[in-house]
Amino acid sequence: MKVWISSKEKKPMGLDQSPNARHSLQSRIPKNCHHWTLTRSEFPAVASSSKTAVNRRPNPRRPPTAYCCREISRLAPPNSPPDPASLVVAIPDSQTRPGARTLEEIQKKVTMGLVDSSGDLSGEMEVDAFRRLFPLRYYERHLAESIRPDGRTLGMARDTTLALGAVSSADGSALTKIGSTTMLAAIKMEVMTPSAESPDEGCIAIEFHMPPICSPIVRPGRPAEAAVVESKRLSDTILRYGRMESLDVQPRTIWLVFCSSGMINLKELALVSGKAAWMAYLDIYCLDADGALFDAALLSAVAAFSHLQIPVVSLNDKGKIVAFTEEGDTVGKLEKEAVNKEKRKLTLGNIPFSLTCALHKKHILADPSSEEESIMETLVTVVMDSSDRLVSFYKPGGALAYTSLVTDCVRLTRQRMKELEKILDEAFSGMEVD
Amino acid sequence: METDRKDGRTPNQLRPLKCSRNILHRAHGSASWSQGETKVLAAVYGPKAGTKKNEDPEKACIEVIWKPKTGQIGKAEKECEMIMKKTIQSICLLTINPNTTTSVIVQVVNDDGALLPCAINAACAALVDAGIPLKHLAVAICCCVAEEGSVVLDPTNVIEFVFGQQMRGFAYLVFPNSALSALPEGSYLVNGEPLEHGIITSVTHGVMSVDEYLKCVDRGRAACAKLSGFLRNSLQKSQFPSDTSSKAA
């Protein structure tokens, strides 16, 4: 394609060095780009708000003050570079968190450090931008003071809450929150015929779902890889722990049979030997994925099983199990009803509790958030039960772990187990009052 | 000492090991590893250009595909893939070839116990055969805990009875291989412990006490030292296909 250039415009625009062209180039830059030169009259909207904000020059030695986002957009003129003196510092609950003052000092040091450090960073970077661009360095500055950006110490887990009976249509349900990570567990019971190898045992099917609501990485249609793995690990911990059957897919002989002191005794789910048994479907939905998914999922599963009320059933004339009705028009064997009326709740054996830790050089961070998990490559999950036995020490790859690290993680898990047992007891005592 | 193990091994004895390199000619690297009856074949293709979605383009990406002997791919296979991927990522030097993908394909030929450690060993030998840059090798072992707390190495699939006790739990452990160097011992210590004492990967099933787990780790380290000697010998053999198989009892 030919471009006709007139004799006047032989050179492309913008690269002309003649004085006329330079002036035209400069005139294209809006005047308010340099906030050094603006005056109050040029910004009528801003002039009406606080005087000090507009006239303030960025002063790196000034301590950062906390403003909310909306205030900043109102006070600062548009198109100006960010003013580091008025940066946003979000400290949740800063008055009650331990080390709140240390946190502010660290944030101060981060901005000051930017000014003093080598010339690869411009001195006017906000803390937020530094956190996004250099997450590892941001975290290391905090770890040097043994504190984390959200104000927790290294061994502290996030606030945990538990709500039982969240789903009224399910036979047992629980909603768990560890920090922002939210899990909803629900159990539905169905009657089925037990297999020939174990006529006195019921069955539990555990499924872990990660719907797209939980994380920006998960898209609809394709199940997240993490969901499949967590599902398997949960069923391993709750079911195979304490009892190992012949493994799925391939028909193998039962190869290792462990002592059956697991959490759930499948024999409790039997109804009529060889003919009817309970099948429990446990579905766990991740509503918000913010790190430590396995911990929250295991806690919600345990709570749902504790909350479970097995529906009452009776045997009708044809030998089929039907739901028990109060009127008594279905002819039911009295023995059957009596048996089922007593066993409405599952007796749980040793309950497993877990703690995920992130490892970074010599620091162990308990209960990492998703930001910490993405930066630190090494994660360890320790599951222990209430009789102080190790159910699982799960460390898939990552940096090398020595014996001292194993003992430290186990110690942190024991502490966490005490906290979780208290939370579980409180939730149940609250429920029984109702 | 009286042993009740079906094949007459002592609790500390491993099954006969066999490792062959360069068995598949189209793959960039391949190896087969067998421990007794368990046999796994691993092939490595790579590095290929481009990384998968959601992976960091500044590092090399490792992809593991696990093919079971029979049946469809289910959750157990996905979990094995994830564990192997993370293990291999921690031994590879990922910054040398950024924005590339290396695929490791694992085919289970026969499963008679300790399948995942066998697969990790095979994958490591295949990576060496392909010439992928590694920090150190990964050596894997399976340790079993009996009722009374004694530790048994490398169990098979059948119900194991040692001294008349049943097995209570088992652990798959992966350690780095032991270093052989001309330098004095002191230079390889990290916090007073040699490098090969660190655990790369650990997966446990069943219940055991913390002390029993630490005993497993100790026994596993000793066994892995022997395994890494065997691995070094077999990988140092010549390149010719006829000469690449080596056997160790």
Automatic annotation (TrEMBL), chain A:
Signal peptide stretch: none
Membrane-traversing stretches: none
One GO MF term attached to the UniProt entry: mRNA 3'-UTR AU-rich region binding
Exoribonuclease phosphorolytic domain segment(s): 158-311, 351-400
Record CDD domains: RNase_PH_RRP43
Keyword RNA-binding listed: yes
One CC-aspect GO term: nucleolus
Gene Ontology biological process terms in this record: exonucleolytic trimming to generate mature 3'-end of 5.8S rRNA from tricistronic rRNA transcript (SSU-rRNA, 5.8S rRNA, LSU-rRNA); nuclear mRNA surveillance; nuclear polyadenylation-dependent rRNA catabolic process; rRNA catabolic process; TRAMP-dependent tRNA surveillance pathway; U1 snRNA 3'-end processing; U4 snRNA 3'-end processing; U5 snRNA 3'-end processing
Keywords recorded for this protein, A-Z: Cytoplasm, Exosome, Nucleus, RNA-binding, rRNA processing
Record's subcellular location: Cytoplasm; Nucleus, Nucleolus
Pfam families according to UniProt: RNase_PH, RNase_PH_C
Region annotation (Disordered) ranges: 1-24
Protein family membership: Belongs to the RNase PH family.
Protein name: Ribosomal RNA-processing protein 43
Species of the source: Linum tenue
Lineage per the UniProt record: Eukaryota, Viridiplantae, Streptophyta, Embryophyta, Tracheophyta
TrEMBL record, chain B:
GO cellular component, one term: nuclear exosome (RNase complex)
Chief location category: nucleus
Matches recorded under InterPro entries: ExoRNase_PH_dom1 (IPR001247), ExoRNase_PH_dom2_sf (IPR036345), PNPase/RNase_PH_dom_sf (IPR027408), Ribosomal_Su5_D2-typ_SF (IPR020568), RNase_PH (IPR050080)
Domain Exoribonuclease phosphorolytic residues, every copy: 13-133
Keywords annotated in UniProt: Exonuclease, Exosome, Hydrolase, Nuclease, Nucleus, RNA-binding, rRNA processing
Species name: Linum tenue
Stored Pfam families: RNase_PH
Cellular localization per UniProt: Nucleus, Nucleolus
Protein name: Exosome complex exonuclease RRP46 homolog
Protein family membership: Belongs to the RNase PH family.
Keyword rRNA processing carried by entry: yes
GO biological-process terms attached to the record: nuclear mRNA surveillance; poly(A)-dependent snoRNA 3'-end processing; rRNA catabolic process; rRNA processing; U4 snRNA 3'-end processing
CDD domains the UniProt entry points to: RNase_PH_RRP46
A molecular function GO annotation: exonuclease activity
